[in-house]
Predict the structure.
Amino acid sequence: MTGINSEMSRRNVLRAIGLGAVAVGGGGLLGACGGLKGSGGSSSGALKIGYVSPQTGPLAGFGAADEFIVKQIREALRDGITAGGKKTKIEIIVKDSQSNPNRASDVARQLIFEDKVDLIVASSTPDTTNPVADQCEANGIPCVGTIAPWEAWYFGRGAKEGTEFRYTTMFYFGMTEITNCFVSMWDRMGTNKKVATLWPNDSDANAFRQGFPPVMKRKGYTMVDGGSYQNGISDYSAQIAKFKGAGAELFTTTPLPPDFNTYWKQAAQQGYRPKLATVAKVMLFPSEAEALGPLANNIATDVWWSPVHPYKSTLDGTTAQQLADNYAKDTGKQWTQALGSVYSLFEIAVSALGSADDPRDRKAVAQELKDMKIECMGGALDFTAGPVPGVAVQKLAGAQWRKGKDFAWDLVIVDNSQVPHVPVGGDLLPTG
């Protein structure tokens, strides 16, 4: 894979995402750090890894498993690692971005200047990953992020074609993977090929707004655009009426989770039920399915990690299934996709620190990140392969929410065209 679809203009992506980044970054700085607490105390001479994610706020679902993961990583690293030819303790310091980009930037500065970390990892949407990466790039701190489409991370931070960041890296999927995932499911539904699109004005959705239309056109689909809207609106009647009037039998969106909850309930009330809904950034986690109740049935989404993915830890050999089972046993909660991604952040960080001749040489550690090829809890990741320097791409499965067995809802793999090594668990069924 060499980049986004040839029909896309990366210049247009940059323009669109940049505008979105300005919009979401305009809020005021939030108050004191909430969510998870950092480590209980410093270890003399320890290597310090900072972690930033949205543990509170509208994106808190992405951080629901953080406490468990950090505990697992601390346990796996309790004896330290060999770095620079000697055994060294690892200290992890956790910060909450509160789902706010200004807050994410602020806590990244705290990690750099107050906690004096050696490396920072960041997770979950450009609202957190981008400002953290910007602070790391500006201050020469190695950083790896995840759970943000690479275009929204790369172009959204002002990168231009052919340029690269020196200290910051990313692993996740891009527009090629998500469009192929959704179109593969659309092609199997036998619809009129009209797709209702509901994309807000933020960095995530602006990437989708640029990435999807060229693929739709090439594949014979017609877009029914609901128009750009501001996050947090409470009335979607105009968009719903437009979708109904056009007879759009397919629906896709990339909203904030609370906004989708509002929209989907209103759509049901107003009689709009597409044959298939394929959604991104939302319905990734069980809590969102539970909030919708019966309306969650057969909503489709993308899956980059699950218990049935044949991946395992580089730290202690734990498999994806074991990680999910341990999470359920420890917390009483159902697995989430963020488990695999956040776990992999720390695997990558440890590998980079351990591979550098001097783990406190920030340039050397950053280069280890950019040169990394690793098979870990997140699968086979190659940061040298592109589509741009320092980005490793993950392939996607398609899945639908179904009534569960041990929990209220299960996310069932229904399309593995990109990842044939991941087993399918059920047939693709209509949403409506």
Observations:
- The longest strand covers residues 47-53.
- DSSP finds 13 helices and 17 strands in the chain.
- Confidence is low (pLDDT under 50) at residues 1-43.
- The radius of gyration is 21 Å.
